Amino acid sequence: MAPLLQVEGLTVAFDGPAGPARAVDDVSFTIGRGEKFALVGESGSGKTVSALALLRLAGDARVSGRIRFDGRDLGALSEREMRGVRGREIAMIFQEPMVALNPLYTVGDQIGETLALHEAMPAAAARARAIELLELTGIAEPQRRVDSYPHQLSGGQRQRAMIAMALACRPALLIADEPTTALDVTVQRQIVELLDDLQRSIGMSVLLITHDLPLVRRFADRVGVMREGRLLEVAPVQALFDAPRDPYTRRLIDSRPRRSVEPVPAGAAPLLDARGAGCRYWYRSGWFGRKPFDAVRDVDLEVARGETLGIVGESGSGKTTLGMALLRLATGTPSGAIRFDGERLDGRGR
What we know:
Elements: E1 5-16, E2 19-31, E3 36-40, H1 47-54, E4 62-69, E5 72-73, H2 79-85, E6 90-93, H3 97-100, H4 107-119, H5 123-136, H6 142-145, H7 155-166, E7 173-177, H8 185-202, E8 205-210, H9 213-219, E9 222-227, E10 230-236, H10 237-242, H11 247-254, E11 270-285, E12 289-304, H12 319-326, E13 333-340, E14 343-344
Parallel strand pairs: 3-8, 3-9, 6-7, 7-8
Antiparallel strand pairs: 1-2, 1-4, 4-5, 9-10, 11-12, 11-13, 13-14
């Protein structure tokens, strides 16, 4: 059976002061039907530019090479024909959902626009389908969230909304550009499991773009390694991790962050001291009522001079609000005693 996607000699160049600069240089690979293929490499290696070139979204770049999708030469299609391919047959999850989503429209409207454009679906049916897609991607209370704007969703919820939009027309190929970037580890795992489940149920192919090698090992069938615009090697995932051919791939696999933190001297005086720190918000309940919501409650912490304290937790656990509350920048009602270098920061004496 012929591959779903065939890329031959893809080259992408941008004009610069010193002449054309190649961001992608003679890259060739295939993706089979139902296959999960990963492109990995450091930032600037050409991964995302390659994906944008597949959809003819690389701006003013000079693109050469041959891209065949489901037997058709995408380079020979008109722009109108390509608009029919984008979203319907090849969909993309962009790296930054807060940037990719339109802040002026609800997520339901944005999903519905895809359905109206590609399937001529009436507004009521598109809204119902958007709710189904949000539920499919694991967003709680989809009937309410369909009317939410992007800024009203957490990072994980925005990523799920992007996935729902990408899957609206059941594409044959899904391009996922760094789908877990900036998400906490719990949500990362949920997003990967979601993509895995959806890929199996829909039977689509996936092009995963990432620098996260553990994610590649967990998710992909085959992997291609890119560096400075060139594709160094392509292999099944297990074979590549067991016996990489290129020295750069070996260095990439072997690279591990090493701890280099000196211990803080015992008995060091605290620079920052917080006791019972909290932050309460109020939300409307009924016509005239209000109810409290404690985003942060009764937090005690100390940070010595020269010490690094890590605050970890899932999205929505209160990490950022705690930091804002310590600096008295949170918009809610603060509580607790906060001292910095012996001085009270909460305005309540010493």
